Amino acid sequence: MGAHGGAGVTTLARLLAPAADCHRRWPGVMSGESPYVVLVARETAIGLAAADSLLRQHHAGLAGTTVVVGLVTVAARPGRVPAPIRRDRQLYGELVANLWRIDWHEAWTTTTHEALPIWSPADVAAPSRRKDDLAAVPADVATLGRELMTAIGELERSASFTIGESS
């Protein structure tokens, strides 16, 4: 779920086969949508503040029965991350169980979503460390995909155990 417009959700939803864009709305579990949400924010002061607002909304119980799996921050530019952004990212990252970062990928700025590579949980090949971010899924995206699947699997097992325990 994008914390704001331009966060990078559409790109990540294309790159990560199991992911979907919920168009900046908390999913409605009653309509059969997954309860699992990953917040995505661009690494800007505005982007991280928007993520903070949504995380606080969720912690206050205002997001229904959704489960925030974590926060993904997406580089806003190439190069070093400014100190205030690093500080805010760390601060807001303490509100979630998982914090991930997607680096700047220049090739993504000059292509269509359809031309992006796609990561799937069934992928067994090592992620690309090459500079061509359009030939194969970059390592940071593949790592995000694997870790997301692991985190959601653990949440599922935990929920099943809790349900079985109370029977």
What are the SSEs and their pairings?
Elements: H1 9-15, E1 36-42, H2 45-59, E2 67-74, H3 83-93, E3 99-102, H4 139-166
Parallel strand pairs: 1-2, 2-3
Helix pairs in contact: 2-3
How many strands? 3
Compressed to H and E, one letter per element, the order equals HEHEHEH
**What can be said about the biggest beta sheet?**
3 strands, parallel
First-last Cα distance? 33 Å
Beta-strand percentage range: 5-15%
Low-confidence stretches: 163-167
Structure class: alpha/beta
- Helical fraction: 25-40%
Strand order of the largest sheet: 1-2-3
- Overall mean confidence score, pLDDT: 89
Number of helices: 4
Tally of structural domains: 1
Cα-based radius of gyration, to the nearest Å: 16 Å
Overall geometric form: globular
